[in-house]
Amino acid sequence: MTMRAVAIRGHGGPEVLEFGTWPHPMPKPGEAVVAIRAAAVNPADGKWRAGMFAGFAPVSFPHILGYDVAGVVVGGAGLTPGTRVAAMLDPFTKGGYADYVAVAADRLVAIPDGLSFEVAAAVPTAGLTGAQLIERAVDARPGQFVLLTGAVGAVGRFALDAARRRGVEVVAAVRGTRKDEALALGAAQAIALGEDDWSGGPFDHVVDTVGGDAVAALCRHLRPGGRIATAATTPIDPQGLAAIPEFYAVVADAERLGRLLDAVAKGEIAVPIARVMPLEEAAEAQRLTDAGGTGGKIILTP
Ligand SMILES: NC(=O)c1ccc[n+]([C@@H]2O[C@H](COP(=O)([O-])OP(=O)(O)OC[C@H]3O[C@@H](n4cnc5c(N)ncnc54)[C@H](OP(=O)(O)O)[C@@H]3O)[C@@H](O)[C@H]2O)c1
């Protein structure tokens, strides 16, 4: 049996993405088979494609990219066939840019009624990373004062929501054009990253989704004993900072994903979708995501 998928046979630019016919996934014990209705394109997809992680996490070729999916259970272990589900796939094996994927049943979460496959697919990696940055990586406490960079991005807006729910006060560092949006999402203050100086009090923690020199400059306002957690792959120079920036890697958490999907379904967190494109256009979708400035997730539909 075969299916349609987009795979890479080596690292490179978006042109290495190959749309074609691939073997249908065979579930191992404990896995379900999901018919994918929507797969999100994450910034990391282009990094895996380019080989940025090949030194410590080599993949075997051909390799199907994509690890945020929403679809319908069609067989295997776990939930009843026909159940609408979303999942963050194992980032090392992936398989999301495809008609079907075999996924560990304990990663599957039922999609709440009324939530579209496209929006559900946009939630897992961004949502879990944002929530975990606040709740696990820096473990911000009620009343604390946190700098959040990229606060209106996919990860950032979930971090902002997690902070708001904990009673954490957020200073959002965003593009100058998006300060109002950050304030509307619940930031106490907003500054233009790389343009505005910070003259307020010291930050208890820094949560970063951008990286680089402009973030390092703001990290100088971290109070001693505070933490800097970054999800970004652009490093923050630790020179002169009160803490060494620590890279945080998202971990699967089906229970937390379920609560995030519920919050999105209730309209408590907005998840902008920039474009929905057919699976065949995965290379163009990655070009757009790699370039940034999309204002929302790009979703592929098989
Ligand atoms: N470690 C992990 O487990 C993990 C998990 C998920 C994501 N990530 C990483 O986290 C980062 C953010 O992911 P995402 O999905 O949230 O991406 P995203 O949706 O593109 O959000 C990034 C936000 O930061 C903004 N930004 C980027 N460079 C900026 C700059 N120099 N000044 C001001 N704003 C800037 C972007 O604005 P523009 O759109 O205008 O550029 C966007 O609003 C990526 O590097 C991604 O690979 C890591």
TrEMBL record:
SMART domains: PKS_ER
Gene Ontology terms for molecular function: mRNA 3'-UTR AU-rich region binding; NADPH binding; quinone reductase (NADPH) activity
Keyword Oxidoreductase found: yes
GO cellular component annotations of the record: cytosol
Domain Enoyl reductase (ER) residue range list: 12-300
InterPro entries xrefs: ADH-like_N, ER, GroES-like_sf, NAD(P)-bd_dom_sf
Keyword Ubl conjugation in record: no
Pfam families, alphabetized: ADH_N (PF08240), ADH_zinc_N_2 (PF13602)
Keywords linked to the UniProt accession: NADP, Oxidoreductase
Membrane-spanning ranges: none
Gene3D superfamilies reported in the protein's UniProt record: Medium-chain alcohol dehydrogenases, catalytic domain, NAD(P)-binding Rossmann-like Domain
Database matches in PANTHER family: QUINONE OXIDOREDUCTASE PIG3-RELATED, QUINONE OXIDOREDUCTASE-RELATED
Protein name: Alcohol dehydrogenase GroES domain protein
Source species: Rhizorhabdus wittichii (strain DSM 6014 / CCUG 31198 / JCM 15750 / NBRC 105917 / EY 4224 / RW1)
